Amino acid sequence: MAAGFARWGNDLYTGRRSYDVVGHRRRFYWVSAALVVLSVVILLVRGFNLGIEFRGGSEFTITNPSSLSQTEAAEAVADVAPAEAPRISTVGTSSLRVQTVELTEEEVVDVREALAEAYGVAPADVTSNFIGPTWGEDVSQKAIIGIVVFLLLVSVVMTLYFRAWRMALAAILALFHDLVITAGIYALIGWEVTPATVIGFLTILGYSIYDTVVVFDKVRENTDGVLSQSRSTYAERANLAINQTLVRSINTSVVALLPVAAILFIGTFVLGAGNLRDISLALFVGMTVGTYSSIFLATPLEVSLRTREHDVAEHTERVLTSREPSSTVPETTADPVPAGASSRQYTGQLQPGGHLGNKAQPRRRKGGR
Amino acid sequence: MGLCAHEKRHPLATTNRKKSRPTRQLVGLGVVVVALFGSILAGNVWSTATWAPKLALDLEGGTQIILRPVTDNGEEVTTEDVNQAIAIIRQRVDSSGVAEAEITSQGGSNIVVALPGTPSEETLQLVRESAQMQFRPVLYFGGPAGTDLGEDPAADPTGEATEEEVPSAEAPAGEPPAEEPTVEPTAVPETAPTDEELDFDPFAPQQGSAENPSDFAQVTTELLEEFAALDCTDEANLSGGGSQPSDSAVIACADDGSVKYILGPVEISGTEIASADSGLRVNSQGVTLNEWAVNIEFDSAGTKKFTEVTTRLSQLPTYEQWIATPQPVQAPGMFAMVLDNLVISAPTSSVIIPDGKAEITGTFTRESATTLANQLNFGALPLTFEVQSESQVSATLGSEQLQKGLIAGVIGLVLVFVYSLVQYRALGFVTVASLSIAGILAYGFIALLSWLQGYRLSLPGVAGLIVAIGITADSFIVYFERIRDELRDGKSLATAVDTAWVRARRTILASDAVSLLAAVVLYFLAVGGVRGFAFTLGLTTVIDVLVVFLFTHPLMKLLARTRFFSSGHPASGLDPKTLGVESIRYAGRGRTSVPRAAGTAKGAAPSKVLVGAGGPGTDGRTMTIAERRAAQAREDAERDTAGTGASPDPSHETTAGTDGVAPSAGTDERKDGNH
């Protein structure tokens, strides 16, 4: 399997096999747009299932109760606060969590005692938490400030590093795409949104940009000096970069997702509701979407932005027109071109023994080299 | 980022590169690891360091209270106010005997109080309570120690304890009081009135209602007994907090426990302070003196009351006069600034201050003046603490979360190991080793920081560590894929490692910079568990760079010298055949490259094969030299494989792309224009 994968990677690298992502970018834009719209609709219609940190209220945790049955808890709460419908869930392997609206201090003491009695534990084993209604808001507000500052800084850093603000813009558009879709899927699954979820979302920020930077670095490398030759267009070079980093993207996302999947699995099936589960779900979805977007959205977006540039547009046209007459030159590729790679398309690697004509030579050499 | 030009040239320069010493970097890493664990060991032996990192409340169990200071009038709460509030809460909690409480500010506005175990309701109350500032007249004061009334005064140790802190009482002589009202600080008495003086009991008949807040009649016998019993040298009495009646006389300690006071009822509340600041004194001629002073300004209501107070106090004996009186029958002309029921300063007021602007002078240093000004400003805010969240985590639940989280981490790690071994074969072991080193370093740094900085590992922190596995492993993947790319171009492993490193290094640094940026921004701007997460994420990013530079790359260089890897053993993960270097390809500059696996001996000298100026090629076009050469090589290769295993004729060997002489064929077309 690995050998086949390596050979596939080799074909992608040499351009023998090529997936025309950039060429079909409109298709991917539609997919992304549809997913984003769907996510927004889910968010608007279904909304987040806000956790107690955002609603405010009191929370009781019973450690090592005599049974994990939830009816006793409901009764115990009903005795003290009859109008209250508590949310009861199992936490970990041997704990119960009871969430209510905000109770007065006396009620808290009463509920604690009632719960301790109902489950046959010492009152010390029933811990009570209180969360003010503004706590979660405060966390999210700070998180939003963090996001804005991070986006500003990362735009500056990427613009400086790549010497192209379009790359920064494309990366950030892709990032928003990731965040919205992740939020949509999270809302769809319907787990509680806790500060841990917010942490998960914040990590996606870093990861999505990180992943995009790796792909863009290859795009930059491939498109360096693209205007001083006439064999390939900017879009084709960028597409080659996607193909060449495809194996790395897949390997990275598998490696990054494996530990997250492990937490998600343990969190969901062993620990139950809690921080680990929330954080890992947000991460799992976000990393998957992030990998997708750096391949299928960020780079095509960057190409779309770039080809609007006068120089690049002119160059693209020149390459394409010069290609028309030279299409009579027979293909020297020894292997049959696999499906998916159009024969007129530049796929990157020189095939041995072929001459592509003087037009393929660089027009002008940059000085100092 | 500004290195691009240099880096682009680098691959070419590698042909005559300096002899690199990968072992040096490995030794450097060894030094880092030894220094890390050595310092923890040293801390373990001579200090309080532990091998296991300290755990945060969500893993260890305990109570966490998050408070947000809010003002009644919507005024902005500054960082100084928050720090002041933290100082007050810390004073209360520390004095209440709760060990290892942690009080920190988060995101600049919230106060997080973490108490281990299950604290008592009283302790929680101490934390939640808001602190008030009050101005009360001083009725009586004395040395801090609590004594029985009959105790030998000679045993009172306070005499020498306070002696060195003599306040310089410098009233600006001849200064018009209206212009430069000066309040003299007398926070510490020169010599505390001894208990002997207290044995006289001249007050008993004077009990009754007070004429004014400074009325000495308020000092009742009970109060004096209480006063005598109060021991301000006992930490527990310095916790502050609690509520004291505002309309009657009370006893209080100085905040540093050096003096104890009997104070009259509240005259001015802290909220009537308009502002306070500290600075160097300026005398009436406008000359700046080399003395620190605190300036305080009252609002209109406060000004009115302050005029009243200073008018009354100016009639009363000054600090020196009062001290000199063996049996005081009236209160000294001093007022006390009481914050959280502790006296922070008690200056004498000898002049009437009608404009509400007072200057407190004395033995201030820059720090102590700033502290007092901050305290006064804090008192000026009608600040209350809003409990944002109060959570108790039982120790069992916390340890279960930690245990399961670690199990998840181990499972994830094992899966990553398996995947990289499947993908990269023997090269996967480099990933395994690098991740292990990264893990060891991460553990060491967390243990070290938990000792030096009081860092505590929280559940989000553990999540950050697990997520970091992926990001760290990605660096190796980027590097390995680059090496494979270079191999696909027909380079030898040694060259490929060098060239790939230059390219991969840039990518790794750029992407890690983004990751680090995210971590730093989140750490400084976010609250709650986000911080713990951002911390581990940032830490592991730095460790990632460290490991890649000091371990993975040097190790790759060493491995590239071994036969197993450089010969491209099928299990090495660097098998040229698997990587598709199977066909003869044009390697640029008129040379072709054939895979070494096809029979070319390692290190064969590049030799050019003469090819005849052949006729037209297959398509009728005249073949170029390169095309002819490639065709020739192809023929040769075909003959070799067809021929019954005969060793290839050395004269027909073509460049095998060894030793970095063969440039990359595909990644940079500009090189191809040379023939």
Automatic annotation (TrEMBL), chain A:
Region (Disordered): 312-369
Transmembrane stretches, start-end: 28-48, 143-162, 169-189, 195-216, 254-273, 279-298
Keywords: Cell membrane, Membrane, Protein transport, Translocation, Transmembrane, Transmembrane helix, Transport
A matching Pfam family: SecD_SecF_C
Any one GO CC term of the record: plasma membrane
Membrane topology note: Multi-pass membrane protein
SUPFAM superfamilies registered for this protein in UniProt: Multidrug efflux transporter AcrB transmembrane domain (SSF82866)
Primary location group: membrane
GO biological process, one term: intracellular protein transmembrane transport
Residues of the Protein export membrane protein SecD/SecF C-terminal domain: 121-306
UniProt subcellular location: Cell membrane
Domain of life of the organism encoding this protein: Bacteria
Basic and acidic residues bias spans: 312-321
Subunit structure: Forms a complex with SecD. Part of the essential Sec protein translocation apparatus which comprises SecA, SecYEG and auxiliary proteins SecDF. Other proteins may also be involved.
Protein name: Protein-export membrane protein SecF
Species of provenance: Sanguibacter suaedae
